[in-house]
Design a protein that fits this description.
The radius of gyration is 27 Å and the shape is flat. The chain is built from eight helices and six strands, in the order αααβαββαβαβαβα. 39% of the residues lie in helices and 9% in strands. The protein is an alpha/beta fold and 237 residues long.
Length: 237
């Protein structure tokens, strides 16, 4: 009886290590694939310049781009763009919509040196985090619109890095699950960027609600100017 049991344990142990090996192989594959998708397009950069290289990167990731005075180029148009990219070589890339793309810290190297980029949308990007936001300071002279809506890894620490973007006119920080006290953070961001419209949470988000009794008491004292703070004096004194 002991031999079959030992064989069963040995078989289960080998299966366990097989599963661990497969899990590790999958993890390494996804890491390599993410690295591959975020590589710098050095050949395109060398021969066609940073604007075409950035457009190539975004379209390959499934995003959309717009050059100055041109129509939007969508992911399904990327092959036509690649064939005719010479005509865009001297045009600045002004708008990038990389929403939902797997762009990460290293992939931003393709975008942060664009001298005329006005709008950048990173909505719902799963790998955009605080480190990514720290790289955007090089766009401070040109970036006017930035959307981070739905980025699960962005926290208040990353938002604090945006103080360099003094030309920003619109910032979307709605639906950031890793940000606590969303209403307070929005107020702080608005103070940090006074010329920017901040789209996000209601100011009350993240604040503790008061009980009905506290609200009634506060409202009663607040509506009578000069009302002393403290308990009411008894009528016998």
């Amino acid at each position: 009886m002991a031999a079959p049991r030992a064989n069963l344990i040995a078989h289960m142990t080998s299966r366990f290590y097989d599963m661990e090996y497969i899990r590790e192989w999958i993890r390494r594959f996804w890491s390599w694939n993410l690295y591959r998708k975020n590589k710098v397009f050095s050949h395109t950069l060398k021969h066609y310049g940073p604007n075409v290289a950035a457009a190539h990167f975004v379209l390959t990731q499934g995003g959309a781009i717009r050059f100055q005075d041109q129509e939007w180029i969508l992911p399904q148009d990327k092959n036509r763009f690649f064939r005719n990219c010479l005509q865009f070589q001297n045009l600045p890339l002004e708008e990038v919509d990389a929403s939902g793309c797997v762009i990460n810290y290293y992939g931003l190297e393709n975008l942060v040196h664009l001298p005329r980029l006005r709008s950048l949308k990173l909505c719902g990007c799963p790998y955009v985090d605080d480190w990514c936001l720290s790289r955007l300071h090089s766009l401070s002279s040109c970036l006017q619109e930035l959307s981070l809506a739905g980025c699960p890894r962005v926290t208040e620490r990353g938002l604090a890095c945006l103080h360099h973007l003094r030309n920003l006119r619109c910032l979307d920080i709605s639906n950031l699950p890793a940000v606590s006290n969303k209403g307070l953070i929005q107020i702080l961001v608005e103070e940090m960027l006074p010329d920017c419209e901040v789209i996000g949470s209601e100011y009350a988000d993240g604040l503790e609600p008061h009980s009905e009794e506290e609200i009634v008491t506060a409202g009663t004292t607040a509506t009578i100017p000069g009302t002393p703070v403290g308990p009411m004096p008894s009528s016998g004194t």
